[in-house]
Amino acid sequence: METDKKNSDKTELRRRAEKKFGMEALDTKELAEMSPEKMSNLIHELQVHQIELKMQNDELRRIHKELEESRDRYSHLYDFAPNGYFTLTEKGLIDEANLTLATLLGVVRADLLGKSFNRFVQKDDQDSFYKHRQKIIETEIPQTFELQLVKKDGHEIYVRLEAIVIQNEKGPKQIRVAVSDITELRRSEKNLLVSETKYSSMKEAHEFAENIINAMSEPLIALDQDLRVVTVNRSFYDFFKVKPEETMGQLIYDLGNKQWDIPKLRELLETILPQKTSFENYEVEHHFPDIGNCTMLLNARQIKRALGKDQIILLAIEDITERKKTEELLLEKEKFQGVLEMAGATCHELNQPLQIVSSYCEILLIDKENSNPNYKALKGIEDGIKRIGLLMRKIMGITHYQSKPYLKSEIIDIEKSSQNEKKSEGKGDYIVSTWSG
Question: What does the DSSP 8-state code read for residue 246?
């Protein structure tokens, strides 16, 4: 029964080939009268094209391997990033979310997906959240704003949201949002203001501020008006690996053997801050010998001391190195996804020329005996085209990444990675004629 089906497929192929031959192929008489030299040139061109297709497929396998590795890195960094990340639909429903956000809100991730984010927004901030969401959809301009959220257990937290619009080619707009927990910072600011009101003594205010600073989890440093260190918290010592005796009373630019002599930090403290009482989200990239490359968000605020004579500068430092890496991997993933889609489109476009060449080979073999000098060459071309068609079909069916040893490295195992591998078992080996792309 399987043999009958195979014969039926060949009969249908011949009928289609004859039909296409009548519209596109060379005149039968011209093919029959083709000189051996022209026939040899035709065979040469087909063999060269076959090698070109093989080189293209090798490049596709390499790109696919890089894409899979990038996806794995992205997935790890996305889920375990220090900040929460989620994607909203235009209707305000959560389409994607990382584990950090779920932990921040005190829920499991499954309870977030497909649900409205508005249910976590404190009631007084819901109108503000709606307006920001509408504005970013309409203008596509990135938005940064702060909200109060209510966790599952009822506790309220302060967060900073940084949102951008994602425009999908075939779908509606989405909003990608990064969430930073600023609860401790906001509480510290409030407590610091309360302390200045409550304590008239400069010494009392200083001691109270020190306690607040030491309780914060992110690095924080206080400077006097001459930019010398008044106090730093424990997180600063731990993160930047410095000692108190090398820090207190020092000019900030001299800290850590002049590690902090950063041009952008000078710009913030000497140019921008004197013109404002505060500055938020000032991004600085720098290489520290002890901790390596670091991307930081600086939040600076000038605070007047008692009697209004002196002032201190409170500088909060947020490490966003991993967040930046995650954003870069997102871009990298989108880039490699586009390359893989292009590879699929290329396979699809190459299918029709392969069918035509295969049909030509079958036509040329019809009247050829095994003893004919061109029979073996034409048969080899036909077999080569079938193998190429099979390989292209497997590439189009790749659903996951699985590698196999090759020389001293690893290459993608197309046989085990393709969902079409099992489908092709037991159905003969003629792939080009049955694959529609």
Answer: G
Domain contains 300: yes
Based on the domain organization, do 155 and 189 belong to the same domain? no
- List the CATH number of the domain containing 119: 3.30.450.20
pTM of the full predicted structure?
0.34
The structural domain count of the chain equals 3
CA distances from 296 to 281, 283, 308 (A): 9, 6, 31
**Of 178, 177, 175, which is closest to residue 83 (Cα–Cα)?**
178
pLDDT digits (tens, 9 = 90+) for 107-138: 998 888 989 999 999 999 999 999 998 999 88
Whether residues 315 and 212 fall in one domain: yes
Q: Is residue 432 part of a domain?
A: no
Amino acid at 186: R
Residue/partner pairs of 99-108 with CB below 8 Å, 24 or more apart: 101/179, 104/151, 104/157, 104/159, 104/179, 104/181, 105/149, 105/151, 105/152, 106/151, 106/152, 106/153, 106/155, 107/152
Q: What is the domain extent for residue 298?
A: 185-319
